[in-house]
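=== Structure Prediction Worksheet ===
Name of assembly: unnamed complex
Input type: mixed (protein and possibly other molecules)
Chain count: two
Listed entries:
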Amino acid sequence: MPRTAFFVSDRTGITAEMLGHSLITQFEDVNFRRITLPYIDSTEKAHEATARIRHQAEVDGCRPIVFSTVVDDELRAIIHVDEALTLDFFEIFIGPLEKELGRESSHSVGKTHGIANFEEYKARIDAVNFALNHDDGVMPRDLNEADIILIGVSRAAKTPTCLYLALQYGIKAANYPLTPEDFGQHTLPKLLLPYRNKLFGLTIDPVRLAQIREERKPNSKYAALDNCQFEVGEAEALMRHVGVPYLASTTRSIEELATTIMHRTGLTRRTY
Amino acid sequence: MPRTAFFVSDRTGITAEMLGHSLITQFEDVNFRRITLPYIDSTEKAHEATARIRHQAEVDGCRPIVFSTVVDDELRAIIHVDEALTLDFFEIFIGPLEKELGRESSHSVGKTHGIANFEEYKARIDAVNFALNHDDGVMPRDLNEADIILIGVSRAAKTPTCLYLALQYGIKAANYPLTPEDFGQHTLPKLLLPYRNKLFGLTIDPVRLAQIREERKPNSKYAALDNCQFEVGEAEALMRHVGVPYLASTTRSIEELATTIMHRTGLTRRTY
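=== Predicted Assembly ===
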């Protein structure tokens, strides 16, 4: 029997989705239908949301689970209905926090995922542009500005990781592919030498790599398993030789790669 | 007096950061130092985290706030210390959820932000590659594959929004800049005509646009306020004329743009 999970928010719904997702994935044998109701920021919209939740309860024949991050007291009261189990994030956490901090919270909408300030916003956009302009070995002069430079063989997930670092953390991340021309010299490509302390490597299991490359260039030398084994072996040997830390992307999501890199290098977020 | 907020997680720490951030930003006049302790997945690391929290309590002279999303019961017990206010996300929510669903949760680590399955992972990477290969009007043949095509004047935030849609939702988003050549014809650029129902517009306040463009090309016609006013006016008129819905990026974050577009177009996430 499928259950319905609602993610209700006065803003984007991202926090509610993440909260709810992390909880419902703990119940592997329950099949959840997920419905996000974002921008519930008026009594009218709150009543609409309530109607939708009640309707779903009837359709399902059991109570939906409502994960709510709505901040406003009046709207929160509307959303709580008997026909659902409502897990109200603010209700539960804001009380202990107010007590600990010895003051009342503002109970105001829209602090998360909004434009906190223009400078922070610009930092993110600049970081995205930086990643796009320093992708795949394209290296204009301003590499000094890079917070980090990811290196590794082609298709080791460098580009998405750079973009994630830029979008989520405002980190300026460049990336440079290690290609067969770079191997056998036991030294870093010349262009990278001045930035050794900014380098971080990504590697990947050769079998997985061959699989990924095969989809892009079927039956090519590029995708052949023995070539992938050669490239990965050489790249790892080079990174070990010159002392560049590296990480395998084989079983890690983009989030895991990005957060692990942040953690290991000691970089800190520019934006929240 | 600054307070310290710890975000403690057995995985990336992203959920803990987001939850904690949404709560502490409700206390505008409290200055928080933020420390993320990710990958706390062993008793040893849990004890290290605890030592760090206790140390901070001494330094600060008051209790740190610990936002924890650690799932494992044993590790959670270690992390709870008297010297901090611990807001334990799983402890609070998993109980009511288990009761409602009539079964125990798996209490297992690593369900969120990991590689759920290779297909889902590939969908994200494919979407990122799609966004990169269909950026700024570059439109190879496979535009049929696009879930959405963002249009708007140059620097209206199309590219970061496309990348966010790809990375976070696995949505294939192309973007096409509206330039002076496209105006005055009261019709869409020819290339876009077959995909009318996939179009969504981004617009921006001309003053903000001039400010952003000025940083890229100082003293250019491109950045001049009157030119920005002209381009934005024409782009909006065109979108209204042909019935393409649009949204202003001026006061919206990338998250807000992306989620609003998802909401209005009815697109649904491919990945969690």
